[in-house]
Amino acid sequence: MATRLWQPLGLLAVIAIAAMLFSLTVGSAQLSASQLWAVVQGQGDALAGTMVIDLRLPRGLSAFAVGGLLAVAGALMQVLLRNPLADPYVLGLSGGASIGALAAMLAGVGGVLMSGSAFLGALVSTFLVFGLAHGSGGWTPSRLLLTGVVVAAGWGAVITLMLALSPAERLPGMLYWLMGDLSYARAPWPPLLLLMLTCIVLIPLGRSLNVLARGPQQAAALGVDVRPLEWGIYVAASLLTAAAVTTAGSIGFVGLVVPHMLRLLLGNDQRLILPACALAGGTLLVLADTLARTMIAPEQLPVGVITALLGVPTFLFLLYRSR
Amino acid sequence: MSRLVTQDLIFDVPGRSGGTALNFAIEPGQVWGVLGPNGAGKTTLLHTLAGLNSPRSGQVLLADQPLATLRRRDIARALGMVFQERLDGFPATVLETALIGRHPYLSLWQMEGADDYARAEAALEKLDVAHLRDRLVSTLSGGERQRVAMATVLTQAPSIWLADEPTNHLDLHHQSAVMALMAEQAAEGRAVMMCLHDLNLAARWCDHILLLYPSGEACWGPRDTMLVPSALERLYQQRLATVEVNGAPVFVPVQ
User: What residues contact A273, with CB distance under 8 A and at least 6 apart?
Assistant: First the structure.
């Protein structure tokens, strides 16, 4: 039984490490494996060391953390809403974060202030959607989903308005942020630690989530405290998404498609799917970001474009082959 | 083995003002049938007894403890619920579905062990769905899914069964088999309460009957005092003819 879990996770971990090493070696200056090994040991030439340790490693780790966070958040939202089309942004969270970030850019501030502004926007949107969906009665998945979709549409209009009113020289930066961009991600540890912590907390809750996926009443009849668990998922998924969006802008697709790909390959046991999402989502984003910064180097592409270009055909192939 | 007792229970049906306060005890070894027309609140009653709905007033006692004070996990070890409607969340196999019946017994970090698998497989065998164990539940027929749901509760091994129309979608043979299983559970010292639409199954397999009227009125008691044609005709607003087959009454609707 336990091997059924550890085998695929072990394999995914190996792939993740390989992807990480690959992303460290390629770029404007290629490194061979032996050069990378020298850097790891603290030898080799100083320029290569700086490039790997100060530039590529933080960016790669950030990409891994963001991808993992988005995939786990997407898987959680799908269980919470019992809807396969749910993704981390379905409740309007990325729209709120985007408005926060764009407003900061318009005001001419960057760095920590912009991240803080994006995080604040994400939280405001989360509470707004939950408050509206809750209304006078309790919330139901379909009401939460509809509220989220409509609020997201509202944010979309505000974003378009902000873009239309923005001075032309700021537009490229804004568009890149909207599509997801890791070039400013310099602090990988907060999202990475959050990802690890989430996995440690979620694995023991996996069986309860399996039961919850069969509906709240069935779950309650089997001994699950449904309301606290649903609240917990909602808060956790929102926090993970907010952390991801704050680090790298609103990267689409990872949160929707990685959980589905894994479900097609590995089945629906959340105890396996959630940690697998962390590994596979991270790997996908590391590879996508490596491509984004090398394909038309020295120019960079928005990484969201690459995740979609990689993910769409893979997903369609798996879906086509599935029973 | 525990008993389920209601104390002045009025369960909450939206738009209904009153109703009889229910005071009954489901004892180990008994099989109760709940009869009533559509919309009388049979399902709501069962959900209230399972602690899934809050009552309007009064309370339910499980093994002499108020249900509202017990943890869901402890309730789930004593009380199993067969739902009338089931959601297909994500695709799951028949064996995985039966295995979730072990959920209330496993700790957070524990994986299902050989014993849990053995119980689930035995339950599938008992419900005649063992040959479907690796099929996705979503690909099964209505009757097969009904039996898988029964197998899940059998895996849960509660001392009180609450079954909402357990014979739904079942062919005649499996209807009898499922009712025989309920009777067997009661004979082993468990208590059973089920909602039924088939008067004749109730007459054949239940020893206690609760009649539930759309107004919220209810009466309950041993089968023979409850299954009188005049009461049943008033309950269903339907004329009935009664014949006797093998010593048991059989009710047939007539014009």
Answer: A75, A206, A259, A262, A263, A266, A267
pTM, two decimals, is 0.90
Chosen from B77, B103, B105 to mutate, greatest number of chain A CBs within 10 A: B103
pLDDT, one tens digit per residue, over B126-177 is 999 999 999 999 899 999 999 999 999 999 999 999 999 999 999 999 999 9
Contact in structure between A100 and A113 (CB atoms under 8 Å):
no
Across B23-38, average pLDDT: 96
List all residues of chain B from 85 to 144 with a beta carbon under 8 Å from chain A: 86-87, 89-92, 96, 100-101, 103-104, 106, 108-109, 111-113
Q: How far apart are CA A122 and CA A100, in angstroms?
A: 8
CB A116 within 8 A of CB A98: no
CB A302 within 8 Å of CB A292:
yes
CATH code for position A60: 1.10.3470.10
Per-domain boundaries in chain B: 4-253
Alpha helix segments (H runs only) across chain A = 2-25, 33-40, 46-50, 57-81, 93-106, 111-134, 141-165, 171-179, 189-212, 216-221, 226-248, 254-266, 270-294, 303-321
Chain B residues inside the 8 Å CB shell of A1 = 111-113
Identify all chain B residues contacting A5, using CB atoms and an 8 Å cutoff: 111
- Rounded CA-CA distance B40/A117 in Å is 54
Q: Does domain B4-253 have CATH number 1.10.3730.10?
A: no
Q: Give the Cα separation of B35 and B236 in Å (integer).
A: 9
